[in-house]
Target: 3'-5' exonuclease
Amino acid sequence: MSIFNWIRRDTPPLSAAQQQRLAALQPAAPLGDAPLQQQRLVVLDLETSGLNLQRDQLLAIGAVVIEDGAIDFSQQFECTLHRAGHQASASTLIHGIAPSAIAAGTDPAEALLAFMEFLGDSPLLAFHAGFDQHMLGRALRESLGYRLRHAFLDVAELAPLLCPEVSLRHAGLDDWLAHFQLQAAERHNASADALATAELALILFSKARRQKLDSLAALDQRLQGRRRRQRAPSL
Model:
């Protein structure tokens, strides 16, 4: 990785050990043509102080791994980040992370380094991935001066693409879980939501294989085509 990917003048100072870990992070792998069952994917969910992309902070990261066509329970990541001066807000009522847990959390640079080491070069899956991608990317820039280049696939887009017969407009994660009779152990908890998203993704991958979309590259290509059609003006 080029040194210019992580050195920024406005980044908090990192220790020599942290700089070495940062420089050793694996570069992102492209979305490839390998069968879905041969992929390692990291399914991500974040908890934040709110929904403002520029002002609110990343508070917790939860992630699980799909590998060899199944959820690998030996590979899980969960971390609450320390945020000085964090106060309870309306979001606290949703995610349930108390200010005391934030005060006792892990230093953001350490937490984000640990997550990126866990991630490796794997692509990411998330539900409403654009939000998670932006918030994670911003946190990495602010704490590490690191530019996130890993590919994200949005399970909220994959579900209607692969299940066109299902009439769920503007559906959230709860709607799709209910449709497939899946149950989340605890909603609005990063780790539990990541696990629920992973279970949903495995169902969708099974449908993708039946539709001859047996690679991340093929899925991404089909998603891009769907986006173009949605943006095209109607005649």
